[in-house]
Amino acid sequence: MTDSATALTSRPLFREGHNCWRTCHASYLAPVIDCANYYRALHEAICQAKHSIFLLGWDIDSRIELLRGKDVREGCPLTLFELLHWKTEQVPEIQIYLNRWNYSVFMAAERESFSEAKWKLSGSDNLHFIFDNALPLGASHHQKIVIIDDEIAFCGGMDVAIARWDDRAHHATNPEREDPDGSIKLGLNHHFDPYHDVQMLVAGEAARELARLARYRWHFGGGERAIPLSKDITPGQPLSWPGSIKPVMRNVCLAIALTLPRFQRQPLLRQIEKLYLEMIAEAEQFIYIENQFFTWQPLAHALCARMRQKPGLRALLLAPYDGQGFMEKKSMYHGRVQFMDVIRAQGMENRVLLTCPVSCEGDEKVTVRIHSKLMVVDDRYLRIGSSNLNYRSMSLDSECDLVIYGDSTHERSQIAAMRDDLIREHTGFEIADIERIIQRGEPVQQFLQQLPHSRQHLQRIDDERYRHQSLTRFAKRFADSGKPLLPYFMTSRRSWHFKRMRISWKLILLVVAVVALALAWKVTPLAEYASPEKVVPILEQVRNTSWALPAGILAYVLGTLLFFPHMVMTGTVVIVFAPLEAFAVAMLGSLISCSIGWAAGLGLGERTLRSLLGRYASKISGYARQGGVMGLTLLRLLPIAPFTVVNLALGMMRVKFWHLLVATLLGLLPGTLVSVYIGKSAVDLFKHPEPGNLMMVGLGLLLWLGVVALTHFISRYWQQRHGKAGR
């Protein structure tokens, strides 16, 4: 042990109600590294459960196989659904509670379809399931906790979800890294790259406190009250402790830190944020962090401030190399550029090293995806939990972290051993070499060495490819904000008084209307009528009457206001009317619908827009007004959102009405002309499949491509000219 380590305070920094929710002791404790070990341990614990099981997660996928490869054996079923269903039959008195986040629609493609129905229709009265949505808009239920018989608890970064399983070898290829794919790819399997995560397993008082938290979240999230906490646990290693996991520490001091957003009766808890900063403020020599995201700049400032106080302090950071999906790249990875900019601006780039693990086999080289949320400060504090180092984990999402305090020489040596073992996993270094680099204060860049005998090594991360991403501020507002998307929906019940919240009743009306319309499309036959086959017979009844054109215009207006696609409405009138009449109906219907939408947006006002977009509202309004007729025409040519949504937004921005009408006329004119022409040719081709009609359809499609190309050219030319004029 170093002199700097012994110079640390002899008491933990934990303070209940300030930087942690509870302080307690874990009678037994062990880290669980990587998902193969976690799934095996979870399978063993569930098989041995007698009283209760609580499973809380960002995701809970019933299809996941907990045992794979050499772990497969006779006895308990392999998949989560079959295992829990089997458990309810084997132990009829057991109660099982599954609390899964009612996830964002943007993640629906990656999730299991109809999971709620699957669990609730399992036929087990003692298996309970809820979608947890007791959160403000934009927040997620991110705690990953499993409680078995109120005597052991898993807590960390791992969900029972797709694309998580891997063993500690992190081979470049592994046939066991395969799961059922998301809901839009039914019947297909998803193969994924090496994946790293960490969980903590605790017993005793710590497990019972987490059991209380699980019951609170179950009830607050919408479930009926769960069974009471079981009686005090008898001394000794619990019967449900998995045999594959060996305890490494006993009777160790531990803190449970939470992030909980303010919602209804629940106050805002930001203990995780405070504990991160205060742990760094006690660092003396070496900080080791594994985290999925690094966007939270207060952490970068805290690192630099402590390094100025402690010239020997260094930090090794591990993160994924690349982002997953549009929003993650625009928000989290551009945010990581800014995080490291803080480090560089304060001259600490040589003491803070951001890396990703790499696995090499033959000619194949793949990066290991870091999903863990772990921090080790010297040999004094070990932190494992669910919180990412981004803004939303500090105040918006529900999070739970466990922090161990090493008081004795043995506990400190165990914390150091766990840290060194993780570094060995990612670098291939010998434990003695890792200890030498840390204890002697050698440059942290030593860990970048590629050892000839090792498949694993660390690679420095260069995020310059994310520096000049577009739409980053927009993406961060939705994906990495510390505030809800609609703040007034997150407040306590008493603040539903409109005057106190300064909430616009117009926005409430808009939200209710949009939700009602969305429900109408989902639960009524409305969607079935969104096709020419349904609308045409209605219009054909009046086609030869004096009401034909007014009926066509009315149908076009109603259709676009109800979010029927423009192509559907234009195709409908082309079938019913002659080309010139169809063109007139489409253009007049569009202009009338545009006017109604604009007027509704004008009534909602800029205040509603500010409520939705915050400080970006004035900028967006300014761009819309400065663009004039030309800018609005280009907006019409580019289908960025449903027609009615754009009209509402332009009305809230108070765009001039005559500008909007002219722009709508110019913007829709070429597209409508071509649509009518192609539509008429397509109808003729269907009725008379002759070479001449086929050629007409082909010419129409070429004309359409020409309109698209011309639109793109005009847009680029106008943007360049407008940009130069603005300089």
How does this structure look, described?
Helices cover 45% and strands 16% of the residues. The chain is of the alpha+beta class and 727 residues long. The protein folds into 3 domains: 224 residues, Endonuclease, Chain A, CATH 3.30.870.10; 216 residues, Endonuclease Chain A (Endonuclease, Chain A); 202 residues, no CATH class. The strands form 3 sheets. It has a 17-stranded mixed beta sheet that branches. A two-stranded antiparallel sheet has the order 7-8. Strands 9-17 form a two-stranded parallel ribbon. The longest helix has 36 residues. The protein is globular, with a radius of gyration of 30 Å. The chain starts with a helix and ends with a helix. The N terminus and C terminus are likely disordered.
